[in-house]
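[agent] plan:
  1. take the single chain provided in the ticket
  2. run structure prediction with default settings
  3. attach structure tokens to the ticket
  4. add a short note for the reviewer (M.T.)
[agent] executing step 1
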Amino acid sequence: MTERVALYLQDAHDLRDGLEYVQYAEKKGFEAVWQAESRLVRDAIVPMAAYAAVTNKLKIGSGVINNWTRNIGLLAATFLTLDDLARDRIICGIGAWWDPLARNVGIDRQKPLTAMKETVQILKRLLAMERVTYHGEFIHVDGIELDVVHGRKEPRHVPVYIGATGDMMMEMTGEIADGVVLNYCVPPEYNHKALELLSAGAKKAGRRLEDIDRPQLIVCSVDKDPDKAIDTTRELLTQYLAQQPHIAKASGVSKDVVDKIQSILGWPATREQIQKAKHLVPEELINKITASGTPDEAKTKVQEYINNGCTCPILYPVGGDVHLLIDTFAQNP
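[agent] step 2 finished; step 3 output follows
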């Protein structure tokens, strides 16, 4: 197993329980915790600040926020603030969001590559404490800088990772970002093409693939009863395959299955709808794109992602005993 492992939290657990989980993960040698911000359910920044306040070594990443809904000045100030709370422990994970959610809240995701490139480049300049004037297609700023009067005025070390799924975004990530957050609900061999694209992008910037960190989200349901672990994962996949088409496409699941699930689930999906549709997700798919089962089975599957280029598994405990998952992958038993 890798010496690097991270925890991923979304909204499956009470936020106060999450504080205890990250403290336990830090004790057990986990490198980082990443907080999700995807559906309209839980903001990433508030939990990140809470995790920072109760830990001492753990890195804390946004996994991932989007580049559309926060003004670039506010975005830079937010990560400056987080770095004040947990110096050199903050990671900005950022993604291009997805439809139909973005469209439903009034965001027109035109030219997502250009929008992301401008965001990452200007964010990095601001966190480097530069004074920035820039007029692009999406960002227009005149002589702005992070206006630190009290506190540290030096450049901040906040690496920027892009949560890329599509081919062009993946290649651009290799060119402009410090790392990539590889997506979940994909088979390990999905990484082969991702690595080729990252390498091509890195080459444009005079870098190598090895210069790009490649942590990967992995759905991980661990239980001593493997059937229970698999059933928990089945519920998650039911919801994600219906509501996040980019994940459904990357997972390789048939359009027929997705269409059937979508015909049952509303937006947002109810617990009853998920239970009604979950039988449509085959166990073969669960075993292919997640690490679900007994502790040994989960470790074996996670190793497949590592063997295929993942540098740090980011484990998403969709249910079951979170402490058991942390113990399973502990670096400090």
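[agent] step 4 note for reviewer: The first strand starts at residue 6 and ends at 9.
[agent] ticket updated
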